[in-house]
Amino acid sequence: MGLKANYLFAVFFLAILACSERKYEKYESNKEFSSWNKVQPIALVIHGGAGTIKREDMSPEREKAYREKLMESLNVGYAVLADGGKSVDAVIAAIKVMEDSPLFNAGKGAVFTHDGKNEMDAAIMEGSTRNAGAVAGISTVKNPITAAYEVMENSPHVFMVGKGAEQFAEEQNLELVDPNYFRTERRYEQLMKIIDSERQQLDHSSIREMELEDPFFKDRKFGTVGAVAVDAAGNVAAATSTGGMTNKRYGRVGDVPVIGAGTYADNATCAVSATGHGEYFIRNVVGHEIASIMRYGNKSLDEAANEVVMDQLVKMEGSGGVISIDAQGNISMPFNSAGMYRGYIREKGQAQTFVYNDEDEGL
Amino acid sequence: MGLKANYLFAVFFLAILACSERKYEKYESNKEFSSWNKVQPIALVIHGGAGTIKREDMSPEREKAYREKLMESLNVGYAVLADGGKSVDAVIAAIKVMEDSPLFNAGKGAVFTHDGKNEMDAAIMEGSTRNAGAVAGISTVKNPITAAYEVMENSPHVFMVGKGAEQFAEEQNLELVDPNYFRTERRYEQLMKIIDSERQQLDHSSIREMELEDPFFKDRKFGTVGAVAVDAAGNVAAATSTGGMTNKRYGRVGDVPVIGAGTYADNATCAVSATGHGEYFIRNVVGHEIASIMRYGNKSLDEAANEVVMDQLVKMEGSGGVISIDAQGNISMPFNSAGMYRGYIREKGQAQTFVYNDEDEGL
Known about the structure:
Two copies of one chain form a homodimer.
Chain A: H1 3-36, E1 43-51, H2 60-82, H3 87-99, E2 120-126, E3 131-138, H4 144-154, E4 159-161, H5 162-171, H6 185-199, H7 204-213, H8 215-218, E5 225-230, E6 236-242, E7 252-253, E8 263-265, E9 271-276, H9 278-283, H10 286-297, H11 301-316, E10 320-325, E11 331-332, E12 339-345, E13 352-356
Helix pairs in contact in A: 1-10, 2-3, 3-4, 4-5, 10-11
């Protein structure tokens, strides 16, 4: 063969090699990265739920309240990371701020079930060990995310539900509250309106009217809070907490406590916290699907997250979004609904918050 | 460029093309297959739990009882498929036979919680729509798998737990039973033995002695029943049902009702039902991991199932196994424990059952 043919042959051989090696490239480089890189970036991303959040429906005061609380959550969580703390502690700190606020459908702002109760779900996972904890259908723990953490840290189990989970939380000395602590008038009114509309067999257009009257009412299927972070050791973590769907019945549980669906973390790929129409997120195993597209499909975090949220979920008409982060501090937070309360904070310590789908995230 | 160089360039180009197209090859060919192939094979695979099931601990009578019941389950499920029925109906029929038998830790043979109750979990998923249904912590539905099916078919939800799930089952006119229906003396004795051993703070060696006395006792963490099938239309389905862990507390839920972990189905890849130490199966998102390795990692069903069960789970010391099937009727049923009650039946209608890890499955 002539020189040119030899050259082409070499290019061909290298191309084949590159193809076959491609899928583990990211995985290996992650490992390397966290072991020798001296400036491992720290970062925290949060969400406060996705839904039909539109600028024209939002008052300036309401928007300001959301942005301020998101900012507070980011700063509290970031302080843990900046102090050399673990990502798992940062996501808990960030989530607790949102659980304690009546603005979000989690903890204090949880929506009501059909029977007029507040039943909450939460989950947490750490990427270094892939250890995880989840609780569903609990009504007495002030911060449900702390119950999920105790399941992960202090039990041989991953998932506990109902009274049993509450008993475990009590034995772990978590702060318990009277179930009435979770009652907020705004959420209770939402329940009453929906039950009324069912009783009178109103059609969808009157539900639509209620939505126009009260922008919060629209989010009745989508409210959730979540956080993902990477710490100075290069470990990622994910946490999610929710009050579920307004007017839910039959002990319905969504994607939040389903490890792999609404909450997932693995240092080799990414940490994901989802918010949206939970049934679709379970069926698509959203968190683990993003991780799998990265690991086996050789895509970046942003490509993988967008493929799942903007293509797979859209095809199924599964509304919502995710926040996600990888061990290098890359961030992706796609959503296919009109808005998603969200924000992030990176090395420089400047928190950024976003609500609508036309804001420049600067990522 | 000369002729040779042109030729090399063409080969190079085709190689790149082949590389980039590879990952969807299986997905596309599946779709094609089910649309034009006239001899779509039907097949059903079942398991009755994995654990430290050893030949030397097993009496001939006991082994015979298990094999006969597995055979009955296979034949009942296969009759549905042979009759042109759906894979989802075949797996339900097969599971009900095992739920109704006291031999398996599901339905009638469910183990006891620490509080002396039988709390059951079940899930089902169909591969054509990726629709799914799951229930956890139910005590009054005779066949928990039928409750999971009703959640999938007749509710907008995927996952229901506890009393709410029972209420839904009742409204769907499922057969309800007094919780005492699930009490079997063998299982109750097992609970008493474990509680005794805890009370007396016996060490692990006396648990080991109990295990030697009673082979069934060993399976206290692993009992589950499951089925996967492909029907004449090329649609796969998966179903799993369990009584959970003997002496379980705190409303612990394992991998069975966690869609993506213990139960998963997608025509584009495979249907999986798992059995084993549930916590590890949740953290590894076992069912969806097998599907992802096929879809994005371009591996066969058998390669993917073995990678997860014999490598990933073994590294984490997660004991157990899976049964899995794809739309072409390929079957894989790896397990990393000493034994797994299992069997399959294909076109010729000859059911095969297996218990130990040294039996030739003829796959």
